[in-house]
Amino acid sequence: MNEHKxxxxxxxxxxxxxxxxxxxxVLGISTIAPAYALTAxxxxxxxxxxxxxxxxFIVGFIPMLLVALGYRELNxxxxxxxxxxxxxxxxxxxxxxxxxxxxxxxxxxxxLSNLAGVAxxxxxxxxxxxxxxxxxxxxxxxxxxxxxxxxxxxxxxxxLCYRGMQETKRVQYTMLGFxxxxxxxxxxxxxxxxxxxxxxxxxxxxxxxxxPFGIPSFSAFTAGLSxxxxxxxxxDVCLTVNEETAGSAKIPGRAALVTVFFIIVLYLLTAVAxxxxxxxxxxxxxxxxxxxxxxVFAALAGPVMGPFAVLLSLAVLSSSASSLQATFISxxxxxxxxxxxxxxxxxxxxxxxxxxxxxxxxxxxxxxSAGFYAVMRVVSDNVLTDTIAALxxxxxxxxxxxxxxxxxxxxxxxxxxxxxVFFKFLAPLLGGVGMAVVFVQTSVDAWDPEFGSGSSLxxxxxxxxxxxxxxxxxxxxxxxxxxxxxxxxxGDILRRDTPSLIVED
Length: 505
What we know:
By secondary structure, this protein is mainly alpha-helical. It has 20 helices and two strands. 70% of the residues lie in helices and 1% in strands. It has a two-stranded antiparallel ribbon with strand order 1-2. 59% of the residues are buried.
């Protein structure tokens, strides 16, 4: 199982060897989009857990690390661009595998719409700052202008992804470098102001900030954890591009681990700096101020960075735009794999001759994301808050399936060595259990209309309708596909012994 050799199997058509360790890490960090994730989630997370923001980041990091270790083991044995779909199919059969793939696709569709929404907000904020005309920033509140601008961003990102990995790399190196430089500036500037006595008056640093047991309730804990998990999501793109990575059996897993460790350090620094500067109050710069919660950096850029605030707006715009482009990679390659293994119509397996990319799958992902955003923007006045909370559900769903798939796939060798006990059994099992607990608790809580933004439909919370509703929609679509294309669902096309397409040491 663990002996790697090149096998004579029909290729999906992706170009091998385009990415190394650095490029994979850059893609992973870009997809997570730390500036975007922080500005969209700091407020809602503080609302749930207060000063225990660093603690919830650490707790969210632990299951992510455990799941990433499971991903690494599966990738070493079976590198395939289908990742969750392929691995769950081999471990549990076609139906669970299909739903694992659906979970990944749905999560990325949700986050693509959210990324575009944040990009629109900061695009008009940036224009307002450059033109010194505050009314320009208000354009984002015009639903028609907002939706049209969002669709333009999505179209540009899908076009760049369509053009191939080399185009993607050039964009990501530039935009991520700028994003991280400005974030470092913000953190240092915040600490300088805190040192000068310009921080929040009602808060002082304490080690209890890092204590998850100080969180007031289990519901608050899981809600905060769900938001925290969203903030780490995206590292698995390092595995999705395994067929395009040199050393596809080892480098993708290594890149995922480097990515999550880098992100936890960045998040903890930002959390402490932001708490000490802004505090957790509901007025002024406070992180629970309704005018601050949905977009923390937009509110704090001026107080922290003064005349250079425009750079932070540009950094978040860069973050969301670069992640928007990088995130298209995952659903496109998952749809490609599902088409290749006949779990979807063959059209999804088509590759563009010029760019060696899954062109049709990329366009479908773009169209689905655009449609989802447009509908959500009309239905919910708090689309960003609701989709972030729902995304946490989707992440827990497919990460949990993949983590349990790791344990079951390697079941015959789990106890043959100390290494296997930890990396193939304990780590993915605990990671999967953590994801399952958060999924169940968040689903129960999300039924309440007051959960998330407070938006509801028919008396049911919008977060529940989005998250659980999309999973149920996936089951319906799967059954329709199974009736029309039963070959995959008979279990004869993608089996445990189906060889990997790319196995490069």
